[in-house]
Amino acid sequence: MDAENRAVILDLSAFYPGGGGQPCDFGSLDVAGVSYPVEKVKKQGDDVLHFLGGTSPLPIPNSASRGTLDWVRRHQLMRTHTAMRILCGTVFRDYGAKVTGGDMDPLKGRMDFEFETPYASLCFI
Asked: How many other CB atoms are found less than 10 A from the CB of residue 21?
């Protein structure tokens, strides 16, 4: 069974499904003594799909489960998101430039800005 077919829907979840340029959470889901790696989380309509890795059979519906986030990854994404918001506000305040796109990973990100005039020497590290 390929990974795209190994998804479960939980009635409650702390896993962020990704969106708005932010990646999804990873972690694990423990059900009946089996620990499944959560390799991807995405929203589909009103549901949040949790894609489980491993080779163990999927849990039966209505099984009690306990999810554990990869906290190191989540914290790094939170720090990156905050830094990108600060950068966005500073560039808008100082240059009037709006964000036109971006992407982020743990501890690194990219933002695109729409400047009225070119700033050839403008560099942010």
From this structure: 15
DSSP secondary structure string for all residues of 35-82: EEEEEEEEEETTEEEEEE-SSSPPPPTT---EEEE-HHHHHHHHHHHH
* pLDDT recorded at residue 20: 82
Domain with CATH 2.40.30.130 in the chain: 3-69
**Which two tokens mark 31?**
């059900």
Residue 57 scores a pLDDT above 70? yes
The amino acid at 97 = A
Strand partners, 114: 98
Q: What percent helix, strand, coil does the chain show, rounded to 5?
A: 20, 35, 40
The yes or no reply on domain 3-69 and CATH 1.20.120.50 is: no
Give the model's confidence band at 119: pLDDT under 50 very low, under 70 low, under 90 confident, else very high: low
Predicted TM-score (pTM) of this structure: 0.82
